[in-house]
Amino acid sequence: AEAPRFPGGFGQGCPPASWSVMEHLRIRLLGDLRVEGLDPAALGSRKARTLIAVLALARGRPVSVGAIVDILWPHDAPTEPEHQVAVLVSRLRRVLGQQRLQRSAAGYAAVCDWLDVAALSDLADEAERRFAAGAFAAGRTAAGAALAPGRGPFLAAESEASWRAAGRGAG
């Protein structure tokens, strides 16, 4: 799918901040990070992509600015890391929509409509319940459905990131 193009000089997939771009935010973390309906380049820098992946993994729970700073700059944080996080969030809001990244005293949270790893977890739980109840055909169907959204390893492009392992068990 081609990235959305916007009038008035916003041809790079970045609309004005006032536009609500993503009617439905669907994020895939299996394989490479993907936001359905967006060209991957529209998310911007590697740090911005890491930020949206971290927030998505939290599944609506706020992630503290301190934790975000530790993940984005594990060795050498910039002089004003909170400001740099705010800049990344602002850029992502221009693409995803203002309401999709929320700020509270506890930190930042992503408001997603669908997350592939959450769907996989829910379907795997359903398969387990069906198998436990002796409904083996239904359990096999649910297990097959759990594998359907898979497009590869969890956050394949982030294979060296230490924060990635913590996200595997999130939920």
Brief synopsis:
By secondary structure, the protein is mainly alpha-helical.
What does this structure look like?
By secondary structure, the chain is mostly helical. It has 6 helices and 5 strands; from the N terminus they run ββαααβββααα. The protein has helices at 46-57, 65-72, 81-96, 116-132, 136-147, 163-168, and strands at 26-28, 34-35, 101-104, 107-110, 114-115. The strands form 2 sheets. It has a 3-stranded mixed beta sheet. A two-stranded antiparallel ribbon has the order 3-4. Strand 3 and strand 4 form a beta hairpin. Helix 1 crosses helix 3 and helix 4 packs antiparallel against helix 5 (136-147). The protein is elongated. It starts with 25 loop residues before the first strand and ends with a helix.
- How much helix, percentage-wise, in residues? 40-55%
**Low-confidence parts:** 1-20
Order of helices and strands: EEHHHEEEHHH
**Percent of sequence in beta strands:** 5-15%
Describe the largest sheet. Answer: 3 strands, mixed
Query: Over all CA atoms, what is the radius of gyration?
Result: 18 Å
Overall pLDDT level: 80
The computed structural class is mainly alpha
How is this fold's topology laid out?
Blueprint: E1 26-28, E2 34-35, H1 46-57, H2 65-72, H3 81-96, E3 101-104, E4 107-110, E5 114-115, H4 116-132, H5 136-147, H6 163-168
Parallel strand pairs: 1-5
Antiparallel strand pairs: 1-2, 3-4
Helix pairs in contact: 1-3, 4-5
